[in-house]
Amino acid sequence: MSDRLCRGLVPSRGLRAVFVRVGDTARMARMLHGLYPTSARLFAEALAAGALVGALQKDEGRVNLQLECDGPLGGLFVDADAGGNVRGYVRRPGVHFPGDPARGAHAALGGSGYLSVLRDLGGGQHYRSAVELQALDVAGDLRRWFASSEQVATALGLAVVPRGDEPLGDVAGLLVQRLPDGDDAAVEEARRRIADGALDRAVAAGLAAQEIIAAIAGHGFDLLADVEVAYRCGCSAERARVAVSALGPDGVADVIAKEREAVITCEFCRTRYVVTEAELRDIRRRLLESSRAGGA
Fold first, then answer.
1. Rounded to whole angstroms, how far apart are CA atoms 187 and 184?
2. b/e map of 222-234 (b: 16 or more CB within 10 Å)?
3. Residues 63-82: tens digit of each pLDDT
4. Which of 55, 94, 167, 286 falls between 20 and 30 A from 103, CA-CA?
């Protein structure tokens, strides 16, 4: 099964439902960032979580999900949009606790921290809200974020199901929300099913997305969108040059004198960009010209 996100409605119960699979994406990200097993598991959960929250955005809006903690992981960051595009990074990739994966993930987060979500509201406006880590579990603390920040009755679950020797065999997430005319009892029922392991069992059984939604949220799902999920980064050589320009004329001159080139590695996709000495001199020349024009 390829990585996909589907969202729609369960009209008879007044619910919105979003289901996402990110197993291929999570395994690719593990290789890209050189993640050890515990870091890889937490990042896999965060990619699924980011995709779910991103699916609630309108148009081209993006969502940033950031987790900071005092444990060995240090934190992680996921950027996602409504089109199924995700990217991110883990602060400390080399974290692994042998034994039970769930307990290891809990230990990697430590004892305190916060989870914040930055949402693009359009028109250049953004809204950030955060909750302290209490569950010390990506799904558990994201549920708390929905309760405190969105104030919309929400059921949410994340599942990481091994397949043979592959710990990231299947990675999935499900979000169920009450619509304005919906029934809180229906959301509470979905919460109980997730807490009882229904999502993990359905993913382990290899059920299709709409079958999983029916098992948790009830029958009568109306599909509104079905999109591919992929790890995509928008970095480019031009953006690397823009980053160098932010150093200002003196900063660029210092790089020329000491390094003779600037090397920038994208933290999301690990692509390496080299800004040559000739490019640096051109950047500095344009910065000086702009400064003179501005002062005239």
1. 5
2. eeeeebebbbebe
3. 999 999 999 999 999 999 99
4. 55
